């Protein structure tokens, strides 16, 4: 079937559902006094559905008591089920850094053949399987199919894979080392989850957590710091407050050198102190918001230089494309153009995003690039997509790039 271009549609897809989100108190101090930070009404989560709306109003707020930044209202179980049905790997570090993470555990004395390990947000168990030593490997994830694949791929008696909500883990043994790489920020009740892990610990248990933090939230990506997949947006101070409330003491910490990652090692601690606020977090928030404004200014400069085209193919039909619609004037500037999206994710192929057909990148060979432009809709993948487009014979003059530089995740 020949690929077809079509106009962007702002029509509502599927039936609106108010049960996707629900109000929450501050996840750290439990108060309900907040100030608004950012709102993205009608944010669409991936492809259209003829019967079920996949849009939600996404709002970020800041607690007036402890200054924690968080999403409110947050996604309900129903919201996660519907909105994130095409998100794939919703939790976890996305792979690719396991060697570095394991080397870091070794450097900090946390790699030992007598230790038991639990990886929270284990997905298909690859991190645990790459640990070269250990007595017991336990993986936990809410993604049922991923857990079933983990059980099939790693059937040995030393492996135990559990499916379910992290707050409701049931285990009849103590764990020596917990790992949570880019998971805590996704959870509606981070304190509750850490308290559950405390129940499975002994006095020398180590808890390793890595999250993005406000202090490292400067980026030229139009997404900015507030990802719609993150329910809590930590600063270093609010992260310490979270651990304290859950009965853990952060003993060591370090920032990643090349991406927004703050990694800590914590140990059980019975002392629960008074919740405090670091008022510098308010200034940090505005500095991070200023960096997003600059990213949008830079993106607009790029868009203003795109050549006039009546047909535009868009490579990338994920959340970045929704942010192009939400935060830039791209579709206003090309309001008379027709569009087609391509994506390597087979789950998206054959569907539509806001009425625009999504096909495999193979269809790009059908087009006359003297009359068609190619917009790259990706931040981290921009340069790789550009290389693939050139390799397919698409002239550089027809390729539209939003970013003049891309930093590592």
From TrEMBL:
GO terms for biological process: methylation. SUPFAM superfamilies: S-adenosyl-L-methionine-dependent methyltransferases. InterPro entries: SAM-dependent_MTases_sf (IPR029063). It is an enzyme of class 2 (transferase). It comes from the Bacteria. It holds the Pfam family Methyltransf_23. GO terms for molecular function: 2-polyprenyl-6-hydroxyphenol methylase activity; 3-demethylubiquinol 3-O-methyltransferase activity. The keyword Transferase applies. Gene3D superfamilies: NAD(P)-binding Rossmann-like Domain, Vaccinia Virus protein VP39. The keyword Ribosomal protein does not apply. Coiled coil: none annotated. Keywords: Methyltransferase, Transferase. Its EC number is 2.1.1.222, 2.1.1.64. This is Class I SAM-dependent methyltransferase. It comes from Kordiimonas lipolytica.
